[in-house]
Amino acid sequence: xxxxxxxxxxxxxxxxxxxxxxRRKASDPEFTPTRIxxxxxxxxxxxxxxxxxxxxxFAILHxxxxxxxxxxxxxxAAASANHLRQLFLRANDGTPIGDRVMxxxxxxxxxxxxxxxxxxxxxxDYKEDLSRLSPSVVANFAAAVSPxxxxxxxxxxxxxxxxxxxxxxxxxxxxxxxxxxxxxxxLKSAEDFSNFIAAALKRAPDAAMIYLAYELILAADAAGVDxxxxxxADKRRVxxxxxxxxxxxxxxxxxxxxxxxxxxxxxxxxxxxxxxMAKGTx
Length: 282
Description:
The chain is an alpha/beta fold. It has a single domain (7-47, 120-279), classed as Phosphatidylinositol (PI) phosphodiesterase (TIM Barrel). Helices cover 36% and strands 22% of the residues. It has eleven helices and twelve strands. The strands form two sheets. An eight-stranded parallel beta barrel has the order 2-3-7-8-9-10-11-12, surrounded by six helices. The protein has a two-stranded antiparallel sheet with strand order 5-6. Helix 1 links the parallel strand 2 (13-19) and strand 3. Helix 3 (104-113) packs parallel to helix 4. The longest helix has 14 residues, at 190-203.
């Protein structure tokens, strides 16, 4: 086990711990520059979210509304870049912290002046759809990301949107998340799961990483279908998301994901997960 919560080696296979919303541990607030830069310096996999704002750029935020994660109110879509930069992030308990909301260009500027470890990977997870991507939004994305795109992967559930943004940006990997709300109500049989992963791989032929809810992977496994093996056979890597808390149930689930040779596990508590996996508890 690596000293920092970066990866675990299991049966000759390395699985990364992805720092979800740039958290190293469960108590961390979301999207702070300190944690993002730490992860990139250490060579970790780290994720931030992108939402389009009123000035045709991107805010580093998960929600479309400002009320939960920041000291602002209203929608990100209606907020200007200058207004967003004046807002503070909130801790997990809702208390404002000293870090302000970052825009994508702010984050990319930080990465330019703080070079990343060669193994580091920053996932930009686009939270909206193709309809939000005007030519100006696409151009602003490319201008911000291109100087540091070699350290990034762009993901989202709308593969057309991901493709459009990536096409304007040099050297940017892409990923695809075909998981949707209620998916386990629709997929029941082994044939359902097999058809699902085949369709996802066909829909996103250039996606280097396929992002799947860990519950979906395990439900398919129980039905006798190995979604990870199917992706690997098509030369893709698989991220299983999101282990939110570390407890005996989730540790057993993580161990099964490791047996299935998942490439990356997204978690809100990389440090806690790494500690418990090192102890061998389940």
